[in-house]
């Protein structure tokens, strides 16, 4: 891989040990994947923030680093709400370690607004063709697919290295030839809301790491595209997808339809809703906001909960920025007894580990909760999640059972 004179000096340690380690990581990745050079990036988003996943070894590593990032950089969700960690009963010991991790990143000049939806924040606007170094799977998918930017699915260390250098290795999804569709999914029925998360959950398992193109009979909005990509990134390893006639790159791309074509039947989506529910007992915890809720999703949750009282633990996750921008939604949601939580999510917070069955409206959470939280997970729309939280589901089941006698 070609390095400029300045880059060679950094690799030789002339700019300090932290930058030497950073460029060493990027050069190693470039050599593995056949990159020709390093290229400038517009921003970085760094995963590996929760103490739940980093542990003491990660804390020690990040604490030893010196320097300042060269481009706008932001963190993925941490393991707790950084301002109100007690509300989900996080232990003081965990909280102290988590604060140290965030402080270590902040020392490097990284914005500590811990979110998986950085594209909703000022300073992280993304244009078509922009090169990025983002690492959270759903953010990578959204940037590549919905915004038409270019980023690989970076690991935490490589995203941080790119932030410190302002560059990343030129391989993978930074190159035109790797962005072509490789597998085609035909969906011959209408979809709405959480159906896109269910579709992504099914399609991700079928696509693996291939680039899919979807032929849909409806036009998804931004939140539905977010849900589709997040689920595929979790159930598979999809970092880029196209929707014919919808996503920006496929509308400009000269491409051939993939030879591998799969029709996804409605029964496969029904199985995501119903099959897993049959295998799981009654949910003890209901969560939405994986990825973090948008303003539109907060508004919808507020309307569904207006005048209602929740009977179960109900957590709604969003970025702190959006929570501050929309206090009216937060007030309505929390008046019901539900909790709006920032900086974290049900997947990376140890709080979820206290429950044995969790209801989610996210294909991403459905894929991750069992392995990362040790809980069973069931899937439903936001409306179904609210019904479960306020006890309407139990009433319907009881009424149905009574009517059958």
TrEMBL record:
Pathway noted in the entry: Isoprenoid biosynthesis; isopentenyl diphosphate biosynthesis via mevalonate pathway
Checking InterPro entries in the record gives: PMDh-L-like_dom
Q: What EC designation does it have?
A: 4.2.1.182
Instruction: Look up the domain of life of the source.
Output: Archaea
- Which keywords has UniProt assigned to this entry? Iron, Isoprene biosynthesis, Lyase
| Class of this enzyme | lyase
The residue ranges of the Phosphomevalonate dehydratase large subunit-like domain are 1-387
| Subunit structure and binding partners | Heterodimer composed of a large subunit (PMDh-L) and a small subunit (PMDh-S).
Biological role:
Component of a hydro-lyase that catalyzes the dehydration of mevalonate 5-phosphate (MVA5P) to form trans-anhydromevalonate 5-phosphate (tAHMP). Involved in the archaeal mevalonate (MVA) pathway, which provides fundamental precursors for isoprenoid biosynthesis, such as isopentenyl diphosphate (IPP) and dimethylallyl diphosphate (DMAPP).
- Please report the name of this protein according to its UniProt entry: Phosphomevalonate dehydratase large subunit
What species is given as this protein's source? Methanosarcina barkeri 3
Q: What is the lineage of its organism?
A: Archaea, Methanobacteriati, Methanobacteriota, Stenosarchaea group, Methanomicrobia
């Amino acid at each position: 891989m070609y390095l400029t004179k300045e880059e060679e000096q950094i690799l030789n340690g002339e700019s300090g040990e932290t930058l030497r380690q950073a460029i060493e990581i990027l050069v190693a990745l470039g050599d593995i994947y056949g990159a020709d050079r390093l290229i400038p990036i517009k921003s970085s988003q760094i995963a590996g923030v929760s103490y739940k996943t980093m542990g003491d070894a990660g804390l020690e590593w990040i604490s030893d680093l010196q320097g300042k990032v060269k481009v706008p950089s932001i963190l993925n969700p941490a393991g707790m709400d950084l301002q109100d960690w007690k509300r989900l009963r996080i232990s003081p010991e965990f909280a102290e370690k988590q604060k140290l991790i965030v402080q270590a990143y902040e020392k490097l000049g990284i914005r500590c607004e811990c979110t998986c939806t950085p594209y909703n924040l000022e300073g992280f606007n993304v244009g078509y063709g922009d090169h990025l170094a983002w690492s959270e799977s759903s953010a990578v998918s959204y940037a590549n697919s919905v915004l038409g930017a270019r980023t690989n699915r970076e690991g935490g260390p490589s995203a941080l290295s790119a932030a410190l250098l302002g560059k990343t290795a030129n391989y993978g999804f930074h190159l035109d030839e790797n962005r072509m569709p490789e597998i085609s999914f035909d969906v011959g029925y209408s979809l709405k809301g959480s159906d896109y998360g269910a579709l992504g959950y099914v399609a991700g398992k079928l696509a693996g790491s291939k680039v899919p193109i979807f032929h849909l009979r409806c036009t998804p909005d931004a939140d539905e595209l977010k849900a589709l990509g997040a689920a595929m990134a979790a159930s598979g390893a999809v970092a880029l997808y196209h929707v014919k006639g919808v996503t920006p790159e496929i509308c400009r791309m000269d491409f051939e339809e993939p030879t591998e074509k799969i029709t996804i039947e409605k029964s496969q989506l029904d199985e995501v809703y119903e099959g897993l529910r049959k295998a799981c007992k009654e949910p003890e915890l209901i969560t939405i906001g994986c990825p973090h809720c948008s303003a539109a999703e907060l508004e919808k949750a507020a309307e569904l909960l207006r005048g209602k009282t929740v009977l179960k633990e109900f957590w709604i996750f969003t970025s702190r920025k959006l929570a501050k921008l929309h206090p009216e939604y937060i007030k309505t949601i929390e008046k019901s007894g539900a909790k709006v939580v920032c900086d974290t999510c049900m997947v990376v917070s140890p709080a979820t580990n206290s429950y044995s069955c969790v209801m989610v409206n996210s294909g991403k959470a459905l894929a991750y909760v069992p392995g990362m939280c040790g809980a069973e997970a069931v899937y439903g729309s936001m409306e179904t999640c609210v019904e479960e939280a306020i006890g309407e589901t139990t009433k319907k089941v009881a009424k149905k059972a009574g009517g059958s006698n």
